[in-house]
Design a protein that fits this description.
Rossmann fold; four-stranded parallel beta sheet; 38% helix
Length: 380
C-alpha cells in the first residue's frame, strides 16, 4: 500500500450532522498505519477514529467540534518528519498525537518543540520521554521500565545469569542499552549477547550460540515487530529449555498468532489491558480497560492490543487538558494542563505527570504476563 494522506474529519465519522466547517479544534496524527510497524499504527488509528467520533457525539470539547487529520508514515522517519511538518505548517493543527515507533517519534519531537505545539507520542524507548522536552509527552511504558520489570521477575525466580538477543532497530538497541544500565542493580549477569536485523527471517545461528553458552539461566529478547516471533519459534525448534522473556513491544495478539504454540511459556511485561477481564475487581484499572477492550473489539472486530490502548490514553489526556484549558487555541495552556495530569486512570496505568516527568508511570503500571494456551495470563 502506498503512503497515503488520510484525512478523517468529523464528516467521515458515523454521524453526518457535523462537517469540516463545524470543526473548531484540529488534532493531527502521524502513525505507522502500514508497513512493518502496522501492528502499532493500525490499532492507534482505529482507536483515534473511534474516540474522536465519540467525543463529537457528546458535543465536542467544551462545545467545540473536533477534526482529526491522520497521515500514514509507513514506519519511515523521513515520511514522519514530512507529514508532521505538513500538519503544523499547512493543516494548522492545534496539537499532535504522533509517533508509533521510536525512530519516527524522534523525527517528530524537534518539529513540535520548534513550533511550540503539544505532542503526545507512542514510542516504546525511554529516549522518547527522557531527556525531557518541554512540549513532548508520551504514554507507553519505557524500555528501561521493561528491563527492570523483567529483572525483578528473574530475581523472584532466582535466575541471575542471562543471555540477551536484541534487534538492531532503534527500539531493540535502546532497550538492550537500557537493560545494561541496570543489570548490576538487580544482580543480573549477562553471559552472552546476540543481535538480529529487522529483515532477518531466521535467528537459528544466534540462538544456537546462546544454547551452547554454559550457565545461561534465561534469555531476554529486546525487540518488536515480527523479529521476536521468529526468535520464539526458533527458540522452541532448538529445544532451548530456559525461560524466554520478551519486551512490551510484542503486546498484541499478532505476536501470539505469529509465534504459534511456541509462544506458550513466554513471559513479558505489559499493560493491564491484555488481561482486562481477569483482573481482580479491586484493580482501579479494571473498569477502564474492560470498557476500552469491549468497545474496540466490538467496533473493529479485532483483538485489543496495548498499542491502541496507548492512543486511548494519549487522546483522553489531551482531551481532558483541552477541556481544562478552555479549548485548544492557547497551545501553551494546553501543554501546561497535560503536564498537570494527575491520577488519570488509563489502559497503561495510573498517570501522574509533572514538570520533571512527562510519562507519569512507575513500575507498578506494568503487569508481568505469561502466555498459556495461546492466551495472556498473569504470571504466578
Amino acid at each position: 500500500m502506498n503512503l497515503l494522506r488520510k484525512v478523517f474529519a468529523v464528516a467521515v465519522f458515523v454521524f453526518a450532522s457535523a462537517t469540516v466547517a463545524d470543526a473548531q479544534i484540529k488534532i493531527g496524527a502521524v502513525l505507522s498505519v502500514t508497513g512493518p510497524a502496522s501492528f502499532l499504527g493500525d490499532p492507534e488509528k482505529r482507536t483515534l477514529e473511534i474516540y474522536a467520533a465519540e467525543i463529537n457525539k457528546q458535543g465536542g470539547i467544551n462545545g467545540q467540534k473536533l477534526e482529526v487529520v491522520i497521515y500514514d508514515d509507513g514506519g519511515d522517519p523521513n515520511q514522519a518528519r514530512t507529514f508532521a511538518t505538513r500538519l503544523i505548517e499547512e493543516d494548522k493543527v492545534d496539537a499532535l498525537l504522533a509517533g508509533s515507533t521510536t525512530a519516527t517519534t524522534m523525527a517528530i519531537i524537534p518539529l513540535a518543540e520548534e513550533a511550540k505545539i503539544p505532542l503526545i507520542n507512542f514510542a516504546g524507548a525511554v529516549v522518547a520521554a527522557d531527556p525531557k522536552f518541554k512540549w513532548n509527552f508520551k504514554t507507553p511504558h519505557t524500555d528501561l521500565m521493561a528491563c527492570e520489570k523483567i529483572f525483578v521477575d528473574l530475581q523472584k525466580r532466582k535466575l541471575t545469569k542471562i543471555a540477551i538477543i536484541s534487534g538492531t532497530d532503534a527500539f531493540g538497541k535502546s532497550m538492550r542499552d537500557q537493560c545494561m544500565t541496570v543489570v548490576k542493580k538487580y544482580g543480573i549477569e549477562v553471559l552472552h549477547e546476540e543481535t538480529y536485523g529487522p529483515r532477518d527471517s531466521d535467528m537459528t545461528p544466534q540462538l544456537t550460540n546462546i544454547k551452547a553458552k554454559a550457565g545461561v539461566q534465561a534469555v531476554v529478547n529486546t525487540g518488536f515487530g515480527q523479529g521476536p516471533a521468529i526468535v520464539t519459534r526458533n527458540y522452541r525448534q532448538l529445544g532451548i529449555l530456559v525461560p524466554l522473556y520478551q519486551s512490551h513491544g510484542v503486546g498484541s495478539k499478532q505476536y501470539i498468532d505469529l509465534a504459534g504454540d511456541a509462544a506458550n511459556g513466554v513471559r513479558l511485561p505489559a499493560a493491564a489491558l491484555l488481561v482486562a477481564t481477569i483482573l481482580p475487581d479491586s484493580d482501579p484499572q479494571k473498569k477502564i480497560v474492560v470498557a476500552y477492550k469491549t468497545k474496540y473489539e466490538a467496533d473493529t472486530k479485532q483483538p485489543v492490543s496495548t498499542f491502541g490502548g496507548h492512543m486511548y490514553d494519549g487522546f483522553m489526556i489531551m482531551i481532558e487538558a483541552m477541556k481544562r484549558a478552555g479549548g485548544a487555541k492557547d497551545k501553551a495552556k494546553v501543554r501546561d494542563e497535560i503536564e498537570k495530569t494527575k491520577n488519570f486512570i488509563g489502559t497503561g496505568g495510573v498517570v501522574n505527570m509533572s514538570p520533571t516527568d512527562h510519562l507519569g508511570l512507575d513500575l507498578t503500571a506494568f503487569k508481568m504476563l505469561e502466555i498459556k494456551n495461546g492466551n495472556w495470563t498473569l504470571a504466578e
